[in-house]
Amino acid sequence: METMRIGVAYVSATGCALVVALGLKGGLAKRASPLFQRFVPFAAVVAANMVNIPLMRQSELLDGVSVYDQAGVRVGESRYAAVKGISQVTLSRILIAAPSMLLLPVLIEGLEKKAWFRRRPFLNAPLQVLVSGAMLLVMVPVGCAIFNQRSCIPSSRLKTIDRLDMKEIESRYGHLPEYVYFNKGL
To answer: Is 81 helix (H, G, I), strand (E, B) or coil?
Structure first.
């Protein structure tokens, strides 16, 4: 991967996250409850993922990813498969972050109302790290397993969406396989 592409993706995702976070923080400062304001980082993470992953994998969007028949024989390239794979990865990354970024603010808000927790402010940071780590230990495998690594799409989708040379594929097979398979990536 080119250093320039990585840099553009990083700066774009970081910039997007900052714009969302600062915009929401400024907009919600006087209009929303402190609890609701604690969800601003999650919105920033969602925005960053939605920008970063497609930018990092833009060559797949432009050129397509390899698609295979049931036997594992390469059929061709598909931009539709790239869009589907990138969408699945983006959604799974958001789902991985969601529990710790959505449940932890509610937990901490509740604990901050307790006198014993207010008397021990030094517990706040370690507790947040511990709970976030535990949630990530559970959610990373779940997020990776939500969608199969080897995804499939009906070949009929390729006829209408992709620029695959259908005649070449049909001449090779005599017909298109009913489904084609691709690696969605991580």
So the answer is: helix
